[in-house]
Amino acid sequence: MGDVLTFDGDITELFDYLNYSYESTLNPDSAPGPCRPKSASALIRYFVAFLYCLVCLFSLVGNALVVLVVTYNKGNRPVTDVYLLNLAIADLIFALTLPIWAIFRAHEWIFGTAMCKIISAMKEVNFYSGILLLAFISIDRYLAIVYATHHVTEKRHWVKFVCVGIWVFSLLLSLPMITYREVVHAPNSAQMVCYENIGGNETTKWRVVLRILPQTFGFLVPLAVMLFCYGVTVHRLFQMKNNQKKKAMKVILVVVLVFLFCWLPYNISLLIDTLMRTRVIAETCGLQDAIDAALLGTEILGFSHSCMNPIIYAFIGQKFRNNFLKILVTRGIISKEVLIRYRKGSTFSSTSGNTSTTL
Fold it and tell me: Is this entry keyworded Phosphoprotein (predicted)?
């Protein structure tokens, strides 16, 4: 545990050991009295840890199946499948970190500064790569449906370069975590926490900057792109009679809506916390406690997103289910009769190399 810092008077904001988000106590020099962060009970801590482990299990199994189904098709994969494959890989990588977060929630940070930086950065990379991949899926569907650029949407060798660019950009947006995350002792406690140690009198200002920039380019801009592309695309679909495209679009829209449902509350809570840090809204102990609770709860919701997409594909994506059953038939796990009986009445076709295997 060599890379552990001790808390001193120059650090006025500390990361609450029960909250991965940015927590603080009021400065005694500028407030009538210091706010004491409320610690959750042992029951809540262990329950949160249990939820993380449960999400980890479902995420590993579900996303591994998505990777299997998409990669099983050796032909020229549709661009949407390439994006969804990268999305599943991002969730798989993040799922591997959840047991570490579970231990942190239940106990304290025991993994040292290097792991603190790496695990925090992996969480950020997962979030940013997820929304950027969904944004590019929205652009792909917009071009394919609104402008009917079939020749462009099916001969896109550049998609691999786009995915690499998304991963690199997500890593760049996560650099603040790699640079400033360290392990420190919480004030008035023997607990060790994983926390951004920026230092100096400008700590709050720089922390706000390090929040606003990634939130703007890694969340708000991709969100605006998705809203525009899907708004126009859905409008065009209502004017068409292509039920197959409508079904595929339904799955994509559900994927996007679930992503927003899981991550938008956390980002709204983080925005309110940022406004409080910059004194745009008054900072009080009551508001601080409410924001701390909101950040903890919404982060749990955000973490749960890593296991959501496979569930969506399984329950809504007819082609995903059919292709998974086809793999089971090939491996001799189920009979062809089962597959034929299940697929009766389905519009699924295995002859098109350009048909998505997921949607």
Answer: yes
pTM summary value:
0.80
Q: How confident is the model over 290-320, as pLDDT tens digits?
A: 888 888 889 889 999 999 999 988 888 778 8
- Please state the rounded mean pLDDT for residues 146-162: 70
Place of tokens 């500064």: 113
Q: Is the pLDDT of residue 253 over 80?
A: yes
Residue 241 lies in a domain: yes
Give the chain's domain count: 1
Which CATH number do you get for residue 299?
1.20.1070.10
pLDDT for position 22: 36
Is 23 part of a structural domain of the chain?
Answer: no
Burial class (CB in 10 A: 0-12, 13-18, 19+), 189: middle
Query: Residue 358 in contact with residue 317, Cβ under 8 Å?
Result: yes
Tokens found for residue 72? 């099983």
Each residue of 46-77: pLDDT tens digit? Answer: 999 999 999 999 999 999 999 999 988 776 77
